[in-house]
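TA notes. Do not distribute before section.
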Amino acid sequence: MSLCSGIKQGQCLFDRGLFLEALEAFSKAAELKPGCRAHQVRSLACLSAVGQHSDCLKLVSGWMLSEGPTADLYILRARLHKRLKQTTQCYRDVKSVLALDPQSPAAGSMLLQLQEASEQARREAVDRSLSGHLPEACCMINIALENCPEDAHLYLFRGIVYRRLKDFTASLEDLVQAVELCKEEEEVGGEAEDAERKDERGSVEEEVQFQLVLTYNDFAVECFSRGLFAEATLLLNKAIEEEKGQAGLYLNRGDCFFKQGDWCFALADYQQAEDMMGPNDPAVRLRLAVLHNTLGSFCFQNGCYQEAVEMFSLAIQDNPTAGHYYESRSKASRKLINLKGAREDFVCMLILDPSNEEVPPMLMNLFPGYSESDVLSSPAGQRIRGQLMDTTQACSSPSDQQQLSEQLLKMTLTNENTASSSKDPPEAGKELKLSVNQQETQMTVKNLLQVQEVVQSCLHDRPALQHSLHTDTGCRMKTSDLGCSESTSQK
């Protein structure tokens, strides 16, 4: 069979819809004239007609390897990728076309379609995220990234979703990717980049840095809830290195130090938070009260009664509504033979905590022969009651004071979403054994901090950024979202 007759036969079969037979005819014709692109194109048309797009893709990729890529081959391969639902590869080939021919109408049209599909998926991801359906949001943002894999905003958004899903390593990796894409864009744009684009890129970098802080904080919350206080402290150290202006980070780290018995470090962090939030903030005052009461208890146990009185006095100054603080100071004053002070503190305890089991023995010791009603109805008792009421009313707002005081005997760090359910230490320990492998969590912390060096190297080479508290979802985060945890009081 001649070359010409083979081509005619193949074309006839193709026109009749007999694509496989046409493919065979064109293949035989190609054997008679190897390397002829026209015959290969006819074979490609047959393969495409029968839906064998994978074979088409291999054929086109072979042409690109043997003869070099061209804009036409890139656009052809992009269409094949689209048929095979290989969206990311389609996007990359479209970008390659535009690099060779920026005015290509076919590439411009395909890029617009990809961008529209990405934006639609992003909007659906935002809707699902706002409604709390985070796994579905993650799926939708994955689709958005397949259509636009070089969009730093999408990596930032997915990093936020991963953090909320407590996949902290994946979150940090996406934040790294967002930073690297911004850096690449800056290198490509150079001085010719317009001001609006620079501002947009700077906004992404700024948000990445803030999300990095939140990732550290939230992972610290997770570690804290599982009893990994040292790891939580390490993560909060990194968070504070990145953002020294968030009081909630100092509160959370102070709670970690408190749990580890590092009283001086805990006190320093609480005082730092106090400087930032003000001395009247109940979250700070109640922590300081717990810490001073704890230090007073140790002083009392060691026989340092004067120091114990001073510590208990500081605790009462920070939280004058806690009856057991007055009980502790009363006992310490009794050891110092300060009968007047011991009696006054006992009356305060009796007013604030009349069901305290220490009331009967202390009443017998300090007011022998008198009943509780005798003590409270006496002129001295009435005077102390009035003073106590004035002191407590001058404290914080009743709602804040009551809310935090109710949780005073428990401790749990909080993240930006919600406070975790508080548990007593024995119960928390049981949950830990059932739900988590501590070694795996410790290894994750180590890996997270190693990857963090990449973020620092990218971000710290840039001018300092003023951190806004916005997420890519359009939701505003407040400073208090970083954590207001409740400390454990010890009698």
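Switch to the second chain here.
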Amino acid sequence: MRDLGDLSHPERERLQHLIIGSRDGVQGAINHLHLLRYAEPFEWSRLFPVPETGLVIIPQPGEVFSYLLRYRQMG
């Protein structure tokens, strides 16, 4: 199933990025991706608190998932 945003650009694929961590950690990762010229900070959504019930991610049929865990030095 294609995202409606893809209809005018069939050669483009939608990729979703998710960064979960402390406020400083998430903002730091966004800034780092900006330094790498991957994404502008304004392209990211505002920061949302994770609810105590957690998050549920429902992929589209045929989508796959990859997960990377990194640690950052605090302080």
